[in-house]
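Comment thread on ticket #2218

A.B. wrote:
> Attaching the input chain for the structure job we discussed in standup.
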Amino acid sequence: MTKIRSLIDPRPFDSYKGNYGHSLIIAGNEQMAGAAILAASACVHVGSGLTSLLTAKTNINVCHLHTPEMMVGNWADQNLRKQWISKANHVLIGPGLGRSQESIEILSETLSSIQPNQVLILDGDAISLWAKEGPFSCKGQLIFTPHLGEWLKMQEANNINDPQEFSDSYQAILVLKSHQTEIYQPSGLSYSNIPGNAGMAIGGMGDTLAGMISGLMGQSSSPLGAVLIAAYMHTAIANQINQKEFIVLPSRLIKQIPEFMKDLFELKGNRFERRI
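C.D. wrote:
> Ran it. Output below, let me know if you need it in another format.
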């Protein structure tokens, strides 16, 4: 717990939203508005300074209504895509993206647009498309968040079976999701998260984790730090819920994020002090 707490700095009283990053999420085709909502809502709830969502046009109103704290745009607008990608500090693409030709074009354009100072998180359908249609190159810091089925597709596409070898080969952070998620960084230590629970085996749980990772990018000193704290909080909150509830609903987990994060720090006088 002490190690996890050290990965997020207390917020100074004179903070403003520009201190905590601009997250762009590209998610949710016409059938998958829920994936977009979960990812973007999780991003907002972990404290992203600014959250923008590009999604299918039919999803825009419901996404606005569900999470008014984020900006929402039509992902079919190529000029808007390029503008928002260029302004973002970190981009998450994939939850509910679908696997249509439009999805492939959006993914390819996003990968080619990312600059060396940006982070790109690939989740869900973006991973499947990356493995099937690519692999594509990218100038920025890549983070992959596959579940076991998606990891098999990545192995087949790259003929690389070892997670550490994959991380080294693509200079990417690999978040290999399972009952006890493993995290690999290029040429460095690997990490095992705390064990989860069977109540987490439900749709939307991965979208939530991906959104949390994105939202924490602007609050941690490194992409790896954001991944580690997101994975820990995601599981720790789920384990708390599972003590009383058989199934851990992702929307329920998201609502508990701010309170859980508050408990990581305690207000003392005029400043925040770490609780060790």
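A.B. wrote:
> Thanks. Noting for the ticket: The longest helix spans residues 223-242.
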